Description:
By secondary structure, the chain is an all-alpha fold. It has one domain.
Amino acid sequence: MINNLKLGFKIMKYGHAAKLSYISSAVLLVIGVLFCVLSCIVGGTTRGNISPLPGGYFMTMVALLFLQLLSTAGAANLVQTSPRKRKLQTSVPAVLSVTLMMAGYLFTVVIMGITCWFHPAAIVTAAMQMFAGAILSGIVMVYYGACFKYFYTSTIMFIIVFFFCYVFGFSQNNLLENIMLFDGSWAGWGLTAALGAAVILVCGFLQYLISLAVYKAPVSKMALGAKLRTQM
């Protein structure tokens, strides 16, 4: 696992438009921190009356930008001709995905936890948003397992699943409010954080299984940038 992680970070630097991805990730990280803090402050005063401010969403996008670097490198001859091609398109992305998504999620947990320490009225809203961020990360990971091989099909399914989760789970008066973990206690906060981490681990395994199933399929050009498509 450690070797796969090291290999993933090593290959990632050969991804397309790496410098732009790093800059975009830094910007999204700052925005994500801001939204995490604001969601706690605003949520503490308007509990149950607003849709979640998507701080965790930005953390997920930071991880996804790094994963995209690995995938664009995987479309290049460097990986396509490598004897470790299978690993570079299955286990390596899965390990890197779990690591990056988990890092973003735990960072969100810490930021929102510190904010809730000073705004305890927001702990229920923050816990729901934190868990929603974990679910979103999981959905993105499963999507990532197939999107670079079957772009249209996986994208359509991602939109359907995300829409369903948002309408019935994340939006105003959502179902998450009925889960006993969100009881406003720090014990509930800890259980929620652990459950969110478990969701990411399970979805990482699902991503790996999906990538194994679609491994032999050619890379979809539509999943890559326009400039990179002209080079394929």
